[in-house]
Design brief:
Structural class: alpha+beta
CATH architecture: 4-Layer Sandwich
CATH class: Alpha Beta
Distance between the termini: 15 Å
CATH topology: Deoxyribonuclease I, Chain A
Helix content: 10-25%
Number of domains: 1
Radius of gyration: 17 Å
Largest sheet: 6 strands, mixed
Strand content: 25-35%
CATH superfamily: Endonuclease/exonuclease/phosphatase
Length: 255
């Protein structure tokens, strides 16, 4: 039974370059495919943008989450809706997604945010894998309220013995989320487990801010990497993160 997963998280900046001068979707798909991830968490995914579709002759006919998913199963949570389009989070999975839910965790009208929860059945695993894709607000007070909502949701909706991956753009420049999620849910951050600190991922051309995270429960982290330099620095304003993890024995025994 295969117990390893490769996880990726990436804020794709709506498929546009850092200053919105060009769209990056075709190169972005090639780069994402090169990661060979089993489970991909995407933020700022453009479900629709009619003006950009009209402006760019090679804009894909499919929504971005469908275009980038390829053969992967996928779900999309619409968070921000505006004239001519909408964007949100997406989860792409090599394995079947057997259920999903998008929870509105917005705390103001300017930043529309959501928690996208996908339930995934990995072949031959006797337990369901729960994947939560997150994008939190810029203000620390807003993030504290959103983290409280995340903790409440997980406690109510996900069994404590189930393996859990929570990943995304936490905008956590004050470094509060890791302790909050550890104390509230027993989650461990992948990069901190391997490297002793969380990863710098923003801005993509010279990452200094540690905004993106991969939190885990029920797994052992074997490797974690922030993907910097080309081609990533030309594809978005964030750098993607990946982690290779192994399902723990207790998660199997609990089944």
């Amino acid at each position: 039974m295969e117990r390893h997963l490769k996880i990726a998280t990436y804020n794709i900046h709506k498929g546009m370059s850092t200053f919105n001068r060009r769209h990056t979707l075709h190169d972005l798909k090639i780069a994402l495919d090169s990661l060979r991830a089993d489970l991909v968490f995407l933020q700022e995914v453009q479900g629709e943008h009619r003006r950009r579709a009209e402006r760019h002759a090679d804009w894909p006919d499919q929504p971005q989450h469908s275009f980038l998913a390829g053969d992967h199963d996928h779900v999309y949570g619409r968070n921000a809706v505006y004239h001519g389009g909408h964007h949100g989070n997406a989860v792409l999975s090599r394995y079947p997604i057997v259920g999903w839910h998008n929870l509105d965790i917005s705390v103001n009208r300017l930043e529309r945010r959501g928690l996208l929860h996908a339930s995934i059945q990995v072949p031959h695993w006797p337990v369901t894998l729960h994947a939560l894709c997150i994008h939190l607000n810029l203000r620390s007070g807003d993030r504290r309220m959103q983290l409280a909502a995340l903790i409440e949701y997980v406690r109510e909706q996900i069994p404590a013995e189930s393996p859990l991956v929570m990943a995304g753009d936490f905008n956590d420049w004050r470094h509060e989320a890791t302790r909050t999620l550890h104390d509230g849910l027993g989650l461990q951050e992948a990069f901190q487990q391997v490297h002793g600190r969380v990863a710098a991922s923003f801005p993509a051309h010279m990452p200094v801010l540690m905004l993106d995270r991969i939190y885990l429960r029920g797994f052992t982290v074997q490797a974690a990497e922030a993907h910097r330099g080309l081609p990533w620095s030309r594809l978005s304003d964030h750098a993607p993160l990946t982690a290779i993890v192994r399902l723990n024995e207790p998660a199997l025994a609990a089944a």
